[in-house]
Amino acid sequence: MQSRVARVTLTFAITAGALIFSGCATTGGRISQHPEMYQSLPPRDQALVSQGQIRPGMTMDAVWLAWGTPDQKIPASVRGRPAETWVYLRYETPPSYGGPYYYGPFDWSYIPPKFIYPIRAVTFSNARVAYFGYLAPP
What we know:
globular
């Protein structure tokens, strides 16, 4: 009986943890977690954000709601004004790869390589979108 209770508790804890950590992983999740941020946007921006799209002139909050947290933030200065570029990366593992292997504490283990490349970027000037782009994968 104790092991059944422990299994149910563990299953519940894992499920709750997954929901907590994935709550802001989607546009809808970010909007539902921060409705006040979404409601403060103009109707045109709300429509774009809910579709995961952005436009020049949007605020950083609107871009965060639409695209999420960037993988890299690059601060800069343009004509003496603060600027920042957000870069979003994709991590991809090829479908089949023959190595490398390493000897772990229990047996030989497969470590697939990860290819990392930028997929989109947005540059802000005065905390508003100056320009953005989608980058083609290599």
